[in-house]
Amino acid sequence: MFPWDQIDTVLLDMDGTLLDLHFDNHFWLSLVPQCLSESRGIPMEQARKLVEQAYAEVAGTLEWYCLDYWQRTLQLDILALHRTLVERIQLRQDSMPFLNALGKCGKRRILLTNAHPDSLALKLEHTELAAGLDEILSSHSTGHPKEAQAFWQQVITKFGLDPGRCLFVDDNEAILEAARQAGIGHQLGISNPDSRQPHKQFQAFPAIDDYRLLLEDLLAASKNPPA
Predict the structure, then answer these.
(1) Record's Gene3D superfamilies (predicted)?
(2) Are 80 and 116 in contact (CB under 8 A)?
């Protein structure tokens, strides 16, 4: 699927790409409306509509991913609520085999996430994800979400990347497009970000539902480097 001999660095999203998105979907679409309903004494359906409207207003911006923003906006202790669901924070079963194979093949592995630093820290605390990564960056430290070209410009400079020799993996097609526009040479979608939801269809990028589909070609390329 990819010319691995032409890829030095693999850039990876976190939620839905390396971690099962079920945690986040359950948190933001079920637990938050439930807690808002209880805190304001309003029907669940009204609370659900309120949060959905609030989400839509900032979709694609850094605020959408910011726990501090949602704590102020909804008047809920968002991080404390995260901690009530830590048992739902799960790695995809195929993530560590893929990350370990990348490391074995000498590929640089960089996590690029829109997750707030507090959410990122919690997820790293409750998984072994960090063991399979060389670098980790939250977009909050750049001041721009991954949807913005300014984010990619900072990433390329910060890590000294040759963008044409990078592969970027994400479950969000709009963010894959932002990476392509920034000159990232290869993109890959994840079609099953939430293990409990139907597969997604990608229109403009190749997509897989299991990293193990990549391992044979990846390992073969490492055994037969170009002359």
Answers:
(1) HAD superfamily/HAD-like
(2) no
Q: Check: CB of residue 81 under 8 Å from CB of residue 32.
A: yes
Strand partners, 113: 138
Higher pLDDT, 18 or 221: 18
pLDDT level of residue 227 (50, 70, 90 thresholds): very low
Are 34 and 43 within 8 A, CB to CB? Answer: no
Q: In what order do the strands lie in the sheet with 207-208?
A: 135-138, 108-113, 9-12, 166-170, 186-190, 207-208
Work out whether the CA dihedral 68, 182, 16, 98 comes out positive or negative. negative
Residue 65 pLDDT exceeds 50: yes
Q: Is the distance from CB of 133 to CB of 111 less than 8 angstroms?
A: yes
Answer yes or no: are the C-beta atoms of 185 and 7 closer than 8 Å: yes
Residue whose pair of structure tokens reads 């990608």 in the numeric block: 202
Chain centre distance of CA 136? 12
Q: How far apart are CA 105 and CA 77, in angstroms?
A: 43
Q: Quick one: 191 exposed, middle or buried, by C-beta within 10 A (0-12, 13-18, 19+)?
A: middle
